């Protein structure tokens, strides 16, 4: 479903990615790991063409994304939940969800079943939601686009433990429903049991790929690349 080959990405003159490879089959959840500043967000931005790579290839659902514009990529079925949960603060919860809706399996009812808190707060301004509820809304908005691949960038970062567990529970449901997911998250304890495979980034390069079990069993690998 997604194949990333040797992408190199720059911010102006400064190179952030020096060759990242990863692949994700339909229905899989791939975890993108690495310490701060190693290029996880840049990899995601490169795939979605928000910061298009200067070299390498991204093939999604049989299409080469080279030269596609970011808005086209979203229509092809990439649903991004960006770092920092950007929702429309001056719209209500329901208006936020309707704003991104496209024909498909996802609708308000299904979002509210997944996140009952959003249903209870449908008419409330998004700016009055807690951080965790805003994160749920950000995920809901991405789902309303009916993505073939959901991309989650630090979706549980900085949240209270209880609401973080609610979000992990919903991610687990999405995975069980067969949605393909690419995820960046620092909470390995919650992430690894759900992941199909892992890719580790170090200084803008993919340096290791393998199963979550292999990663969990390798203390030296975790220490070297993840600072665990
Ligand atoms: P974090 O976990 O802290 O979000 P990350 O692994 O997602 O880290 P990136 O945000 O992709 O890492 O950053 C990779 C490199 O690119 C870093 O050296 C960073 O300083 C640089 N970088 C990121 N965004 C920009 C930008 N907008 N302009 C210039 N350099 C950037």
UniProtKB/TrEMBL annotation:
GO terms for biological process: L-amino acid transport. Keywords: Amino-acid transport, ATP-binding, Nucleotide-binding, Transport. InterPro entries: AAA+_ATPase (IPR003593), ABC_transporter-like_ATP-bd (IPR003439), ABC_transporter-like_CS (IPR017871), BCAA_Transport_ATP-bd_LivF (IPR052156), P-loop_NTPase (IPR027417). SMART domains: AAA. The keyword Transport applies. Residues 2-228 form the ABC transporter domain. One of its GO terms (molecular function) is ATP binding. The keyword Protease does not apply. Belongs to the ABC transporter superfamily. This is ABC transporter ATP-binding protein. It comes from Denitrobaculum tricleocarpae.
